[in-house]
């Protein structure tokens, strides 16, 4: 259920509704909007009754939410969630996250960071703790990799995104990272989701490779239900019978998520295709369906990359991609400014 307070409701009334919800064993999740406050009721149906809540002072209406996810839904929050980060407003403007699959050494990361920054990336990605399918493959540099990420941030000013694999590592990763990534393999690691839900940094949640849209959103709900509203979703391809590509990039979910959730949704065409030659067309397709940004793997010398070499762009290919992206975005801007009805272009 969602309790919508009147525009005039004062702090005391809001507090009283929250206390009423908590007293009955449910959890009140207060979200203060520009005009009014909305309180999400998290718990079981029998704990708090709609008709009781409706009688409290300052309550305008109580809306039952039929879906299992509440905080992530547009019914709960009408406006897009915007996450401001180092000059970029994720959810409002297209964000480009780029960098190597893995942090390999300082030279490799600094070279990559400079290249991606020069070409307009907003954030630097790079795995320090790597979830590899093969136990004998490179597992990442661990904390040493986090330190290298920090160095790259100091050198370039780029904020960093890196994966956290286990709940016990959340504090150390949060010390170095500006955005914590939950990888596809961990999308349903509920203890990890709860742990990142308790921190105050944005979380990039990648879709599990066999996860339905509902399961994906439920995982975001886990993070938000612990109090962290800064969740960025990421479609990274799902398993299908297709062999030509590593995964099938499910672009359907982008406009679908825009409809049912207020959270930003990025697309990762690198893992989504597994093929460097398909990254550019799928990046453009992702932007055309309304993605809030892209995550691209880049390495100064992809042939030497210790992980995901086949899907990694070299600096020249990344530059070319970014030129296309910028060209598309300026075309889109002039399209929006032309006399086209806004309703026709809602998700473009
Ligand atoms: C990654 O982004 O480095 C990664 C491992 O991706 P995924 O979890 O989507 O496989
Ligand atoms: Mn990778």
Describe the structure.
By secondary structure, the protein is an alpha/beta fold. It has 2 domains: 2-63, Alpha-Beta Plaits; 83-332, TIM Barrel (Alpha-Beta Barrel), CATH 3.20.20.70. The protein is 34% helix and 18% strand. The chain has helices at residues 11-23, 50-54, 106-118, 143-156, 170-176, 190-197, 213-225, 253-260, 269-273, 279-288, 315-337; strands spanning 2-5, 27-32, 37-42, 59-63, 83-85, 88-90, 95-99, 123-125, 159-163, 179-182, 203-206, 231-235, 265-267, 293-297. An 8-stranded parallel β-sheet has the order 13-12-11-10-9-8-7-14. Helix 3 (106-118) runs parallel beside helix 4 (143-156) and helix 10 (279-288) packs parallel to helix 11. The longest helix is centred in the last third of the chain and has 23 residues, at 315-337. The mean pLDDT is 94. The structure holds phosphoenolpyruvate and manganese (II) ion.
Largest β-sheet summary: 8 strands, parallel
- Summarize the helix and strand pattern as letters: EHEEHEEEEHEHEHEHEHEHEHHEH
What is the beta-strand fraction? 15-25%
Question: What is the approximate shape?
Answer: globular
The CATH topology of the largest domain: TIM Barrel
Number of domains: 2
Number of separate strands:
14
Which second-level CATH architecture of the largest domain applies?
Answer: Alpha-Beta Barrel
Give the CA-CA distance, first to last residue: 31 Å
Task: State the helicity in percent bands.
Answer: 25-40%
């Amino acid at each position: 259920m969602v309790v919508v307070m009147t525009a005039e409701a004062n702090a005391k009334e809001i507090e009283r509704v929250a206390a009423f919800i908590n007293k009955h064993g449910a959890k009140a999740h207060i979200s203060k909007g520009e005009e009014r406050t909305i309180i999400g009721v998290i718990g079981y149906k029998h704990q708090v009754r709609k008709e009781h809540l409706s009688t409290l002072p300052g309550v305008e209406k109580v809306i039952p939410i039929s879906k299992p996810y509440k905080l992530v839904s547009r019914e709960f929050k009408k406006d897009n969630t915007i996450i401001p980060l180092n000059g970029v407003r994720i959810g409002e403007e297209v964000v480009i996250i780029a960098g190597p699959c893995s942090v390999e050494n300082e030279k490799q990361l600094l070279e990559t960071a400079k290249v991606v920054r020069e070409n307009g990336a907003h954030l630097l990605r790079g795995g320090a703790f790597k979830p590899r399918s093969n136990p004998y493959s490179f597992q990442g540099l661990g904390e040493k990799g986090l330190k290298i990420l920090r160095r790259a941030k100091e050198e370039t000013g780029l904020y960093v995104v890196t994966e956290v694999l286990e709940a016990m590592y959340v504090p150390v990763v949060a010390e170095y990272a500006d955005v914590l990534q939950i990888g596809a393999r961990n999308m349903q690691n509920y203890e990890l989701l709860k742990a990142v839900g308790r921190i105050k940094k944005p979380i990039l949640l990648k879709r599990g490779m066999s996860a339905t849209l509902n399961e994906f959103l439920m995982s975001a709900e886990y993070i938000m239900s612990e109090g962290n509203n800064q969740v960025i979703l990421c479609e990274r391809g799902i398993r299908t019978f297709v062999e030509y590509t590593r995964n099938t990039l499910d672009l359907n979910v982008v406009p679908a998520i825009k409809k049912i959730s207020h959270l930003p949704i990025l697309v990762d065409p690198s893992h989504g295709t597994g093929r460097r030659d398909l990254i550019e067309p799928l990046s453009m397709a992702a932007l055309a369906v309304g993605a809030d940004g892209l995550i691209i793997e880049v390495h100064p010398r992809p042939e030497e990359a210790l992980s995901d070499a086949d899907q990694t762009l070299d600096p020249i290919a990344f530059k070319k991609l970014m030129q296309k992206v910028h060209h598309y975005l300026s075309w889109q801007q002039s399209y929006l400014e032309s006399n086209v009805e806004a309703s026709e272009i809602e998700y473009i």
